[in-house]
Input
Amino acid sequence: MEFDVIVIGAGPGGYPAAIKAAKMGAKTAIIEREWLGGTCLNCGCIPTKTLIAGAETYQKILHADTFGINVGTPTIDYPAMKKRKDGVVSTLQGGIGSLLKAHNITVFEGLGSFVNEHMIEVTKNDGSAERIEGKHIIIATGSTSTVPGFIPEGKQIVESRSFLELDNLPKSLLVLGGGYIGCELACMAAGLGVEVTVVELLDDVLMLLDKDVRTVVKKHMKDQLGVTFITGAPMQDIQTTKKGVKAKAGDQTLEAEMLLVAIGRSPVTDGLKLEAAGVEQNEHGYIPVDELSRTNVEHIYCIGDVSGRMQLAHAATSQAIYAVEHALKEEEKIEEVVIPGVIFTTPEVGLVGLTETEAKDAGIEIAVGKHFFRGLGKALASNETDGFVKIITEKQSDKIIGAQCAGPHATDLISEMVIAIREEITAEELGNTVHGHPTFAEIWMEAA
Output
């Protein structure tokens, strides 16, 4: 079978690429060896946020008396929470399948491997295989959890995917890694009553954020959720025991029922046989691309995590659209570079553009505007007053070049600043823009 476009991988980069190609009139195929929606839908973004929503609801009920509501002592039914999570995933999976069918995209279930630079062999689960040819090929195989060799094997030691499939949570949990994945899952578990300790080799957790922002998150996690942090020390001497896991960090001996390893992601390229198509990989296993998502082979593109760029679902989707447009129209439109980051800790975090630290390191003279949620009417009314927002401008031009938010609804609020930076709005212009009152969004106007 011959196709105009073949997409390998049906995650948040792959399936939008296939739909875009089909909308542009291309005969399109997509290959997926596991499940539609990829890591994001099945064992990443969506299941994590579904469980986090449950933990946040439980915490709100615990503190309902603040609003004059007495509900007694709530109990947690984690198997029911997991069932709800699985239902959400299944619904969205079905939606993707329907979209692919509606656009007449041929779906192949199996492992896609290059035979040459235009031919792909699909090996199905039953062992049978068939070959298809594509004028343009887009690699969108994503990434998987990194588990280094010094971590012993055992049912008490899990990575994020396995953790999300647990039928019941442990009573105590060690989290190795203080990045956004480790901290999100730590908040979820701690919010449901698990005793959580986060161990991070670096001097602090969430190092992609400015210090004042991550301090807000850490303080809330400590004071409100009871999370313990050990930073600046490696986790060593990890052992499985009858009761769970034992390890050392610095001069402390740590014990818990389970260890969650959350120290990063690795590209998924196994089985692709890239060498058959002449596609190059770098020393870390990622597939290098140019600003148009092209690999070193002109008609083969690569998008999303496996390309070694921003490991964000929405970045992969954006890359997909531009890659397909270039392949089919040969339009050299440079893909979007103003990409927000959203972290579903408690409180949430949103960021876009340069951080204050990055701007200073780049030698940019800046001005900074802040406003705290405790000074916002809607936040007080909702009893959600932790945190603040920060706007960073280039001082001479007053143009907004960065923004961060740690607090309620931060992952939604940051979108306004994505538009502000993309459209080169100044702080004065934003400050003069009328915002509804009382709302959370008006905090940006106050900061500006």
Q: What stands out?
A: The chain has a mean pLDDT of 96.
